[in-house]
Amino acid sequence: MNFTFESLKLEHQEAVVSILNYYIEETFAAYREEAVKNEHFLNFIDASEVHCGYAIKNSQNGVVGFCVLEPYGSYSTFSEVAEIMYFIHPDYTGKGIGTLALEKLETEAKKRGIKKLLADISSENINSIKFHEKNGFAEYGQLKNIGKKFNKYFSVVYMGKEIG
Length: 164
Hints:
Structural class: alpha+beta
Strand order of the largest sheet: 1-2-3-4-5-7-6
Radius of gyration: 15 Å
Number of helices: 4
């Protein structure tokens, strides 16, 4: 199956929000407890909020995921650091799309002079932690039991990778 990356545009809004809301409502992968409205998508295409963002598509089913490279903080001292975020439609996880998304974000980060990528991951999202470890990320630390979702406490695991 072939996948392509398109810069996020309003035409991707409904699919991206639907994928994000699945993770909000069903998992610990997204920290929010309540679904977001379509307007939330504008955060992903606001040039002041992100370095870049992509819809991940295949020819048969359209948008199957999205990924975003975000600045880490607003201070110039962090200009070589970026945060990554990606969510893949649950029917398409385990098919290598996450790896493709990470490779795309790494390539884009290097073009922008970014030397370090950060990911913050729920301690309940074991698959994501393992995925990042497999792809060269190391744990930087945790904020223990800082969140509560589905009536259960979870930690936030910070992971990083040197890319430059």
